[in-house]
Sequence to fold (252 residues):
Amino acid sequence: MNSSIKDIVNFKSEFFTSKILKAIVILVTVKLMNAKLIGFTPNPEKLPAMAAKLTHSKTKPEDLDKSSDKELKTILEYVMKLGHTSVVEHTCFTFAISDVSRSLTHQLVRHRIASYAQQSQRYVNLNEPNYVIPPTIEKDKKMKKAYEETMDVIWKQYNKLLEMNIPAEDSRYVLPNATCTNIVVTMNARSLINFFELRCCLHAQWEIRKLANKMLQEVKKIAPTIFKNAGPPCKTRHVCPERKKDCPLYPK
Ligand SMILES: Cc1cc2nc3c(=O)[nH]c(=O)nc-3n(C[C@H](O)[C@H](O)[C@H](O)COP(=O)(O)OP(=O)(O)OC[C@H]3O[C@@H](n4cnc5c(N)ncnc54)[C@H](O)[C@@H]3O)c2cc1C
Fold:
């Protein structure tokens, strides 16, 4: 091969290798929210149905599991329709949620009828920039660049504080709402229904809405009767407490 052809081949292979590397780097950097159902109460629908049957039955609670599956399903459908949802508090779901922003988790933990464990900003090394980019910024090249540059400056300052022996618990004060975090949440089914009402609504903030919709999809697979009508109030009750008449889902 003469040298000019060799140069072209080398240039092309370097060019494609750098493109592939760049794509890999982007894939690694772009954080994708994950919401994995990692645990739930065994017999998630049978248990609350037994509890519901107990309220109107002379049968001892320990004998209720002898009831037929068909009867228990009918009872559960009936109480769900009536809105007597205290019985579904007997069923809990645990989610592992990763690569979401602190902005999201701040909203999530406002839901008090739940249990949480969140990655610590004191004990975990956060020296690499790791943040969520909102879609409104992501779609605009110029805006995204400015946003990323801001994040770089923030993380540089954060690392500088750590280097100056400022403890992580204080250095983290400069980190933004966009900072990625991981959290484990356990909610009972009744609390989840309330969470879906508030957070699947188009009026909810986009990131927590995305999370709520992912979680709803997961629990529907496990407990279809409990979550049959779960979702925003326009879907469940044909009302819009927000009175957002310009919303495409506003009940007609
Ligand atoms: C679109 C949207 C915008 C929001 N904006 C803001 C905002 O600007 N500022 C702000 O501070 N918050 C805001 N919130 C948060 C909101 O006010 C609630 O704190 C949050 O949604 C948790 O809901 P929750 O209290 O129903 O859930 P949970 O805390 O899980 O409670 C579930 C239910 O239990 C009952 N309950 C729980 N604790 C008590 C108690 N102490 N006393 C009586 N009953 C109780 C209530 O019936 C409650 O609905 C917003 C929420 C949404 C969805």
Summary: The first strand starts at residue 34 and ends at 40. The mean pLDDT is 90.
